[in-house]
Design a protein that fits this description.
The chain is of the alpha/beta class. The protein is built from ten helices and twelve strands. A five-stranded mixed β-sheet has the order 4-3-5-12-6, with helices on one face. The protein has a three-stranded antiparallel β-sheet with strand order 10-7-11. A two-stranded antiparallel sheet has the order 1-2.
Length: 306
């Protein structure tokens, strides 16, 4: 099996399209098609089912894809180990994180990290789903649940509290609820279907203090935590939000302090094979320091409030 053809096959299998693979590799669609056809001829099997909507791996194609994927993963690991500087950490670092945590907490810290380590090329992969760290789809993850895989290392960073928030404009127009039962007469923004969350009772505000038999209906549903925060800032209603979403928002005010939703634990996770990577080690230490700073600020704020 020719190595160049395997690279072409891998790109096609990932993208599901000759055209997209060609754009990625800088080759024409016809050149991509020829390389795949020659690989199929050499193996005497069909690797793809071809149809109008794209390409799907055959059973034999999937076997080859899993093998080639494993090879590329090991090569990437070897390349990173070989090229990493002896004196200063350098090279790519792919961090996967949810869009809400990235926008509210991770992104604002990145200028400081990049100033400290300018030779590390950080890529933030905002994914609500779970990328496979063992297969090197990312180098490190910031996750809001404790991983159970045996081949990863995880470090607990912090715990965020969920509270009830509304914009200043909304409260001026509609008044400030003084007790949970008052939410019956307010507009509440809730979650719709399709949102991956680290806790089950995602619409806890809809039930908080509700009268028996009363089924509160949200004024609007969204399936993204960032959009939920933006809708709340815009004055569309009251919402349950984690602390990291609102810590830098001057438009949002916490109400009904006695109401607290499910807490959110945040973990830093990375493959065990990268435990000695300098790039990952300095990123881990940076995140731990930032988490400690956040925890101290939160404790100080709580003590002042008390």
């Amino acid at each position: 099996m020719d190595w160049d053809r395997l690279k072409v096959f891998y790109a096609v299998a990932q993208s599901g399209s000759f055209t997209k693979a060609g754009d990625k590799l800088g080759l024409s669609q016809s050149a991509i098609s020829r390389q795949v056809s020659k690989l199929e001829d050499g193996l005497s099997v069909s690797l793809f089912h071809r149809h109008a909507r794209g390409l799907i791996l055959t059973e034999q194609g999937d076997i080859l894809y899993q093998t080639v994927k494993d090879i590329f993963t090991k090569l990437a690991t070897a390349e990173n180990a070989i090229t990493e500087s002896k004196d200063r950490p350098k090279g790519p670092l792919r961090v996967t994180v949810t869009s809400s945590l990235c926008a509210a907490w991770i992104s604002p810290m990145m200028p400081e990290f990049i100033d400290m380590y300018p030779e590390i090329q950080v890529t933030l992969l905002m994914e609500e789903g779970e990328l496979d760290l063992a297969m090197r789809e990312a180098d490190v993850a910031i996750r809001m649940f404790q991983p159970k895989q045996p081949d990863v290392v995880h470090r607990h960073l912090m715990k965020f509290e969920n509270g009830v928030y509304a914009s200043t404009d909304y409260l001026k127009r509609n008044g400030v609820p003084s007790k949970p039962e008052d939410l019956d007469s307010h507009k509440i923004i809730g979650f719709g279907e399709g949102q991956r969350t680290p806790y089950d009772n995602v619409n806890w505000v809809l039930n908080a203090g509700a009268k028996p038999g009363l089924d509160r209906k949200p004024a609007m549903k969204v399936n993204n935590l960032v959009t939920l925060g933006q809708a709340c800032e815009a004055g569309l209603g009251i919402a349950g939000l984690p602390g990291y979403m609102v810590q830098h928002s001057p438009k949002l005010t916490r109400i009904l302090d006695e109401l607290k939703g499910p807490p959110v634990d945040v973990y830093l996770v990375y493959p065990a094979e990268l435990r000695h990577s300098k790039r990952l080690r300095v990123f881990r230490d940076f995140m731990v320091r930032k988490a400690l700073e956040h925890n101290k600020q939160a404790d100080a704020k709580l003590a002042t409030a008390v």
